[in-house]
Amino acid sequence: MTTYTPILNAEVDAESPITDLLLTRLRDNPLAIGEAAAGVPLNALPTVLLGTLITTSGSTQTLSGLVLTPYKSIRAVWNGVSHSAGVSRNFVFAGLELFTGNGVIDIRGIVDIDLLNGVGYSIINAVNTNQAQDVVPKVIETAIVNATTSISVSLTGGVGSFNGGSIAIYGVK
């Protein structure tokens, strides 16, 4: 991985010489940004992990304090989200029911939302206790836009709570 090295203002003022060290940084820093190397300022990265919803307890998890104004869209990556009850439950993300499952033990997938207008899509794969798999693609419309400051996932329509997995929320520039 390429190393990111900040360029100081004193190195690029009108009186400063052009050095091989400066030229190396001018060459390497864009590569390091593309690789998301250690030391790259977060505001220079095209995609930033904003936070993770841990779905191991409770029936609602919320990521709050978000500042979405620098981003064009968000991506939510579902990894092993499950619930404890054997009854049918609705999985609601960003105010939308994305999936209804009975005995769901493993939900994986991606939800992308455009922050200009709240339109997006979801592709969710759910494995039930009987090992049946349901792939549920949806075009979605949400109230999630640049002014949004929190995103929640919840279980509705029954008893039980989350008992596994997580949802990573990324901001995409």
Total DSSP E strands: 10
The arrangement of helices and strands along the chain is HEEEEEEEEEE
Total domain units: 2
Helix content: under 10%
List the helices and strands and how they pair.
Layout: H1 20-35, E1 47-54, E2 60-64, E3 73-83, E4 88-93, E5 96-102, E6 104-114, E7 119-128, E8 133-141, E9 150-156, E10 162-172
How does this model look, in words?
This protein is mostly beta strands and 173 residues long. Helices cover 9% and strands 49% of the residues. It is built from 1 helix and 10 strands, in the order H-E-E-E-E-E-E-E-E-E-E. Strand 6 and strand 7 form a beta hairpin.
List its salient traits:
single chain, 173 residues, mainly beta, Jelly Rolls, 2 domains, four-stranded antiparallel sheet, 9% helix, 49% strand
Can I get a quick summary?
By secondary structure, the chain is mainly β. It has one helix at residues 20-35; strands spanning 47-54, 60-64, 73-83, 88-93, 96-102, 104-114, 119-128, 133-141, 150-156, 162-172.
